[in-house]
Sequence to fold (224 residues):
Amino acid sequence: MRHAVEVFTGTIRDYAGSRPSAIGKVQVDGELKLTELGLEGDEQAEKKIHGGPERALCHYPREHYAEWAREFPELAEQFCAPAFGENLSTVGMTEESVYIGDIYRWGEALIQVTQPRSPCFKLNFHFNISDMSSQMQASGKVGWLYRVVAAGNVSSDAPLELVSRVSDISVREAAAIAWHMPFDDEQYHRLLSAAGLSTSWTRTMQKRRLSGVIEDNSRRLWGA
Fold:
């Protein structure tokens, strides 16, 4: 199945009370170059936690925006793509229907799903909602990230087409295992077995299995 895609890139800017971010993105049409580090012209402010080879692209389902607008009716006009800082926006692809390790053809490129997007505190400042990151994580409406398996020219005119499914764990299930379940060694083992899972998520799940402890996510969700 093919999915039409809207494409967005962003540059770094300052946020009062927070650290610089490139979450504010603008739509781009026509052909772009996609490298192993992402779309040409797309920036990341803090490369230790954003971007890089396994987080080269961020995808967010467009249909979630109507749900967020109902949740925050007074801020409804904010909730439209690319408000969550996504590079790719589609209708018809959700966390339930997209799986860890899925490989999509996009123009000349191949991209692979690596992990759910891990919401961070910068969303709180971006939306001016004090707990937006926490609400996003709790909802499971988080989107997902890709690595670039084969670089090449891509375009907003080129659809996404699933070409390989290599695991049985959906993005939604991966997020539930990581954030919504009590400690469960068997489920962590299942997630670790998902082909294509990012190194950072592999590290986190393996650390849990060794320590018997779920790490503290408060710094990511709320900042220092």
